[in-house]
From TrEMBL:
Entries under Pfam families matching the protein: 2-Hacid_dh
Spans traversing the lipid bilayer: none
Leader peptide range in chain numbering: none
InterPro entries to which the protein is assigned, alphabetical: D-isomer_2-hydroxyacid_DH, D-isomer_2_OHA_DH_cat_dom
Source organism: Citrus sinensis
The D-isomer specific 2-hydroxyacid dehydrogenase catalytic domain, residue ranges: 55-126
MF (Gene Ontology): glyoxylate reductase (NADPH) activity; hydroxypyruvate reductase [NAD(P)H] activity; NAD binding
Listed GO CC annotations: cytosol
Name this polypeptide is given: D-isomer specific 2-hydroxyacid dehydrogenase catalytic domain-containing protein
Keyword tags: Oxidoreductase
Length: 166
């Protein structure tokens, strides 16, 4: 989070390492615009530019030292050739199939990704959804809510509901 909040010694914007973002990483909107204001990095946000991507890269690519990719924009050899100063490609996804690893290796560019940091959470969600589907939990919930909606319980009435299994 330090990169988001930018603690430390103040530097002139033109002296800061430039980090290219093709599009905003997922869920970064939760942190607001402050995540892209830092006194440690100068973020070049391609999605905010009125220029087409190729024109944006021709204008700004020479000074880019790092790329933060969210997986939606491929980091190809052609893109990397426009950025002679790039030393790091970081992706917020587990996979690297959108990054030209061979070109990065050839140029000595470090490549990092999220790895399996989300694997357990995704597996937990998948098992939960499977249980929901097999036991009709969501469908039963919708049925009960729809059944109760038109009826107004009289004061003091007590209802006991049970939706058995097949």
């Amino acid at each position: 989070m330090e990169a988001c909040h930018g603690h430390g010694k103040e530097k002139e914007s033109q002296d800061l390492p430039r980090v290219l973002l093709f599009k905003p990483p997922p869920d970064f909107h939760l942190f607001g615009d402050e995540c892209f204001s830092s006194n440690k990095f100068k973020f070049l946000k391609a999605w905010e530019s009125p220029l087409p991507l190729d024109q944006f890269l021709k204008t700004h690519a020479q000074s880019v030292e790092a790329i933060l990719s969210s997986g939606g924009a491929p980091v190809t050899a052609e893109t990397l050739r426009l950025m002679p100063a790039v030393r790091l490609v970081m992706t917020t996804s587990a996979g690297l199939n959108h990054v030209d690893i061979a070109e990065c290796r050839r140029r000595g560019i470090t490549v990092a990704n999220a790895g399996n940091v989300f694997s357990e959470d995704v597996a937990d969600l998948a098992v939960g959804l499977l249980i929901d589907l097999l036991r009709n939990i969501s469908a039963s919930d919708r049925f009960v809510k729809q059944w109760l909606r038109p009826r107004q319980a009289a004061e003091g009435d007590c209802y006991s509901l049970g939706i058995g299994s097949k």
